[in-house]
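Long-time lurker. I teach an intro course on protein structure, and each term I like to show students one example going from raw sequence to a predicted 3D structure in token notation. This year I'd like something fresh instead of my usual example. Would anyone be willing to generate the tokens for the chain below so I can use it in lecture? Attribution to the forum is fine with me.
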Amino acid sequence: MKNSIKMSPLKIFIIIFVSSLIILRVFAPWLGKKYVNYVLSTKLEHYTGSIDDFDLFILGGEYTLGGFKLYKKTVPEIQFVAMKKVNISLNWNHLLKGKLLMDIAIDRGVVNFVDGKNEQRDVSGSEEDTKNWKEALDEIVPLSIQRLNVTNSSVALQIGVLKNLVASQLIDINLRVTNLVDPQKQKAKLSPFKFKGLLNGHAPLAIEGGVNIVDQNIPFDVNGSIDKFNISSTNNLLRHYIPIDAQKGSLDAVFEVYGAVSEGKGYIKTFFDGLELFKIDQKYISTKHIIFEWLGGFANWLINAMTEGEVATEIPFLWTPAGFDVDSSEAFWKLIENTGENLKKEPKLIGPLDSFEKKTKIKKKVKKT
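-- Reply from a regular --
Happy to contribute to a lecture. Here you go:
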């Protein structure tokens, strides 16, 4: 009789466990890719998508989607969303505290909005029911998201599908949002975020503040600035929607917005330098274009005659359930006051997040004294 090999229960468990990990590692890329592609192709009504690769890192508690693509079914020639790499991982800090949360890192993402002049050709994502977007996201990312990182990405607005006319774009986008799940523990109960990018490829745009996406009303407090924006770089956008265009000039802007979805308020300070809207020998695309150019040129001349050097103003606005309102009279009188010298190129810091930080600084000073 042959001697039988006896193994302890522990050895049997280890062999089964290791074998399961090997099998999972071998088949996970194929299964993961199949599953994600199934979700993207069946959970959405107006959009569909796919990925090229799926990698699972078991010991690291993470998986990666490669070559993510999403497009509208009626406009398949344009990718609404494309991401080179999406890394989804467990948040280890919260895991050690007994909470299962995930972090998402997106690299080289692209979002293309399209004004196609009709509902079938428009691409914005708003055509899809919010419920469908949420169900698809929950299938691909099964746990709540605690932290979001976006690097080397861009957003563009395109006019028309066939012309491929880019009206405006943001490139070199870098975004970091933290503590999305538990904003109650943060300053003013808002999850902090920072955003940087280049508007139309040359003008630095910086935004920072806080937002609470856990609250149904989504309260937020945001400060931002734009530096040395070449106004003529947005002529495609201006001609299409007004129509008017700029011959030359630069824009600096500072803005602050705070409130929630239901109501809030803010302002934007604009600083124009060397603005020129009208040129006698320029080409016109329509009668309407001629009228707007001459009116804009006259207003431009009048403002330059009344002020010297930089032209600036502050435009307050607010929104309530009744609608959106801009205080145009305040903006006009600020302009008349030659605000290019009087207005400061910095936020007034009047939101709840800023008030919280001011109070904290005062308390620290009191303790020191």
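Some talking points for your students: The chain has eight helices and 14 strands. The chain has a mean pLDDT of 81.
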